[in-house]
Design a protein that fits this description.
Residues 865-875 have a biased composition (Basic and acidic residues). This protein is an alpha/beta fold.
């Protein structure tokens, strides 16, 4: 018995010794996190190494304040971000990840003193700022390192090959750094233990070996190479590898992959669970073979160019829970898509996104999809009504049928069973919500888009039950009502509110706006009172503020300093007055500023120069005074549109405006500006180049994510009211095609600079009602894109240049009341205008004026009627003209009737046609009026 006990004791002793040995060899079996075991102290040499590491960092936010403090200085295991073994005290993890939202990083460089941390298994320095320094090569010497995270840490240079020595590394994330173009990824092929590889937002455009390297990683389970400019896979490069059966997740979104990638993916058909190929260059149909991936859970092919329908095999993927095919070219009947997925996939499918395609048909019955939580079919060609069976989807959380051609009524029957619904988007349809006044919804919506649906005329009372709402858009919904008292105290969760284009009445001042709103639009309503309540939005995230088209009054409160992320500010069309607060200069991210049609006064303050990203400025129709500021040209380098018309500005046009090379529209009309037109206007190079459609304030390089939903800011289009062809016209998305200079109604003197003639894409030039002299430049005909030219009421002299007859797009011309002389150049263009466009030039002759030029053939005296004073009466000529015109018009009507009726069937042609008729009517009316006035002039001549 004693021998047995001794053996048992010996075994226990051996087991205990073996356990201690394991703990010594593998300290990762236990570690101290934060406070840990008070009896275990960190290793002194490791403590000193960490203090040396700290010396190389700039810690402006005292993130490392606990390092070396008096009460803890001897135990580094209690320092922030340091995790030690519970048993040995060795540092196992160093987690100094910064805060990506608050932007409070450590700065500096990495010290090689870290090499003293021999047992380090995890290093995370993400979201810090290492000032474009290179990743130290010594990081490749951490033999025990398993996890390396350097995400968005401002590293630069090249990726060191030494990282390939980390043979125990299981996960690595180097995303969003500023490395030089990576020629290859061969260093990765040595990481034989790697399971997770993340290199998002790194330039890999030259890394043609990426697929070969991935094929050599036998234990890789997750691959993420999003936004890497990744070259398309070459089919021949992946034919001789034994592919890993462990790869479960692939994210190659936002690259240049074409349909060859499908062949590579099929090599992992038994293991892949998640595939993300959104924003690539996939074309043609979706391969049927993808349906053989019997483990597939999530498939995302958004933003490609895929065509046709979905493969029938997809209905047999019994594990498929998420299918996202948004923004492609898919076509066919929606019911066909649903029938295909009605195999075993109907039991697993939770999310279906077919939005932004070309799918037709009515909304089918989804009720057999018992697990369905999210439906997105917006922006297609779907018709019909919302089926009542939608209420049977008890799990439904998101329902989006926006921007289709649906009609009919939505009632409580559709919505009463959807207790899990949190996002509802019925916008941009012809749907009417007829919900009982006392109805209490079973859901709490966080997102609600009902724009262009019929909600009115009363304000929907059921909205007061939705106290978790974050996004509320009820714009253009036919509400004509006073704002109820319960609505002025908005839910604290609200971040996005759009009630524009209704007939809402009420004071704005009682509103309690949540401090963290990102978007507020109450445009085109009947709101009144001051706007002081918007100053309650103090959270610093507001990026869109549109209060235009109301009855708001008073001065602008000085609270712009709270809105440093504001991108769009539109206060136009109100009764606001006073001076612009200097805090407007705090808006360093502002792209659009519209204060048009108010009663603002004072100078344009220098602080606005700080809004250096402004692209659109419309301050027209106010009472601003002083000179046109030179700082506009100095401080707003990307300005596209500048409208300062109808103010009280004086002085001369500063030459600094010529620095605005992106300027497309310059309107300084209806002011008191004097001096010469600067000769440097030829620096407006955007007016010499063909322009694209104006997409508002967001350019192609706009990457800031200020908006709650940045697409709402991207889709915003600036509107500008400009004088063109003698009338005020409002331009929206076509603003970029308009190149305009309007200097009318000022006191400008001197000659028209010939440098303006280099602006070859100029569409509108209006310099009327000034004191300009000299001749019209001879080469004005090279402005071939001109559609509207107004030089009237100046003191231009000399002949009309013959090149003007070459302005074939010119549809509005006014040269009246100048000192022009000679013959109007012959050609189909100038003779098509009215005589009124040339009157007031007493030495001008030729058609369309009645005055004939010397040497022209005149009728016999006997053919001219003589009035009682012995003067020739041209009334007979007028009568002949009228008879000829009406005869010709009749023949033209018969000949062209058939050719006109067919184009009228198409709406866009029909609109252009009636615009043409409207212009012809104006021309005929003015022609007739001139003839009548000429007769009266002859019959009742002036006598002294």
């Amino acid at each position: 018995m004693s021998m047995i006990m001794d053996r048992r004791s010996l075994r226990l002793l051996h087991a205990f010794a073996f356990l201690m040995l394991l703990l010594h060899l593998n300290p990762a079996l236990g570690f101290i996190s934060g406070v840990g075991d008070a009896n275990v102290r960190c290793i002194e040499r490791e403590r000193q190494a960490l203090l040396e590491f700290k010396k190389g960092l700039v810690d402006g936010y005292d993130i490392l304040s606990s390092w070396g403090s008096q009460d803890q200085k001897k135990n580094c295991c209690k320092w922030k971000g340091v995790h030690c073994s519970k048993h040995t005290g060795h540092v196992l993890e160093l987690d100094l990840r910064g805060d990506s939202e608050k932007t409070q990083p450590l700065r500096g460089k990495l010290s090689s003193s870290l090499l003293e941390l021999h047992h380090l298994s995890s290093l995370d320095l993400s979201y810090n700022d290492f000032n474009m320094s290179k990743i130290p090569e010594f990081l490749g010497s951490f033999n025990n390192l398993k996890h390396l995270y350097l995400l968005e840490a401002e590293f630069g240079g090249t990726i060191p090959y030494e990282l390939g020595n980390l043979s125990h590394l299981e996960s690595i994330d180097l995303s969003a750094n500023n490395f030089n173009n990576v020629a290859n990824l061969q260093w990765l092929s040595h990481l034989s233990s790697l399971k997770e590889l993340v290199l998002n937002s790194i330039n890999l455009s030259e890394a043609y070996d990426w697929a070969d390297v991935v094929n050599r990683l036998p234990y890789l389970t997750s691959l993420s190479l999003s936004s890497c400019d990744l070259p398309p896979i070459v089919p021949s490069t992946h034919t001789h590898f034994n592919y890993s059966k462990s790869l479960t997740a692939v994210d190659l979104s936002d690259n240049h992959q074409n349909s060859s990638i499908f062949g590579w993916l099929l090599n992992f058909n038994t293991s892949l669970v998640e595939i993300n190929l959104s924003s690539n260059q996939l074309k043609g149909s979706i391969p049927d073979a993808l349906g053989k991936m019997n483990s597939l859970d999530s498939l995302n092919f958004d933003k490609n160019q895929l065509e046709g329908s979905i493969p029938k095999s997809f209905g047999n993927i019994c594990t498929l829970s998420s299918l996202s095919l948004s923004n492609n070219r898919l076509s066919g009947q929606l019911v066909e898509f649903i029938n295909i997925l009605s195999g075993c996939a109907k039991n697993s499918l939770e999310m279906l996104d077919l939005s932004l395609n070309q799918i037709t048909g009515s909304l089918p019955d989804f009720s057999t999809f018992s697990s369905l939580k999210e439906i997105y079919v917006g922006t297609n060609n779907i018709t019909g009504t919302v089926p009542k069976d939608i209420g049977n989807l008890h799990q439904l959380e998101v329902f989006d049928v926006s921007n289709n051609s649906m009609h009919g009524v939505v009632t409580e029957v559709h919505l009463s069973n959807l207790s899990n619904l949190w996002s509802l988007d019925l916008s941009l349809n012809s749907l009417a919500l007829q919900l009982n006044k006392e109805w209490v919804p079973p859901f709490q919506l966080r997102v609600m888009y009902l724009s262009s649906c019929k909600l009115g005329p009363r304000f929907p009372s059921w909205l007061q039950t939705q106290w978790n709402i974050s996004i509320l858009d009820i714009s253009n919904t036919g509400i004509s009502d006073k704002i109820p008292k319960w609505f002025v105290e908005l839910p604290p969760t609200l971040q996005y509110l759009d009630v524009s284009f209704n007939q809402l009445e009420g004071q704005l001042s009682p509103f309690v706006f949540p401090p963290k709103m990102t978007l507020l639009s109450i445009a085109e309503n009947l709101f009144s009172g001051t706007i002081s309540s918007v100053c309650k939005i103090t959270g610093g995230v507001l990026n869109f503020l549109d209060l235009s088209g109301n009855l708001l009054s008073g001065e602008i409160p000085d609270c712009f300093m709270h809105w440093r992320k504001l991108v769009i500010l539109d206060l136009s069309g109100n009764n606001l007055s006073g001076k612009i607060p200097t805090s407007l200069g705090s808006l360093s991210q502002l792209r659009t500023l519209s204060l048009r049609n108010n009663s603002f006064s004072g100078d344009l303050h220098l602080s606005m120069k700080n809004c250096s990203l402004l692209k659109f400025v419309d301050l027209g129709n106010n009472g601003f005074s002083g000179q046109v500021p030179a700082w506009i040209g100095e401080g707003l380098p990307v300005l596209n549109i500048l409208i300062l018309s109808s103010n009280k500005l004086s002085g001369s046009i500063p030459f600094e405006l010529c620095w605005l090379k992106y300027l497309r529209i310059l309107d300084l009309s209806l002011n008191d500006i004097s001096g010469n037109i600067p000769q440097c206007f030829n620096n407006f190079t955007a007016m010499a180049q063909k322009g694209d459609f104006f997409t508002g304030i967001i350019g192609s390089n706009y990457t800031d994510s200020y908006a709650y939903d940045i697409e709402d800011v991207e889709e915003y289009v600036d509107d500008a009211t400009v004088v063109m062809k003698g009338r005020e016209l409002e331009y929206g998305k076509y603003l970029g095609l308009l190149k305009l200079i309007n200097l009318a109604h000022n006191n400008l003197t001197g000659k028209l600079p010939s440098e303006i003639l280099s602006l070859l894409e100029l569409v509108v030039l209006n310099i009327s009602k000034n004191n300009l002299i000299g001749e019209i430049p001879q080469m004005i005909g090279q402005l071939t894109q001109l559609e509207s030219l107004d030089m009237s009421r100046n003191r231009f002299s000399g002949e009309i240049p013959s090149s003007m007859s070459e302005l074939h797009f010119l549809s509005y011309l006014d040269l009246s009341f100048n000192n022009l002389s000679g013959r109007i150049p012959l050609g189909t263009q100038l003779q098509s205008f009215d005589a009124n466009d040339f009157i007031g030039n007493w030495a001008l002759c030729g058609l369309p004026l009645p005055q004939k030029c010397l040497g022209e053939e005149t009728p016999n005296q006997s053919d001219q009627p003589i009035d009682r004073d012995g003067n020739e009466d041209n009334e007979a000529d007028g009568d002949k003209f009228e008879k000829w015109f009406y005869f010709g018009a009749g023949v033209g009507f018969v000949a062209s009737f058939g050719g006109i009726c067919v184009p009228l069937l198409k709406s866009s042609w029909r609109d252009d046609y009636f615009l043409l008729l409207d212009n012809m009517k104006d021309w005929l009316y003015s022609t007739k009026l001139v003839m009548c006035m000429a007769r009266l002039w002859r019959k009742f001549p002036s006598h002294g």
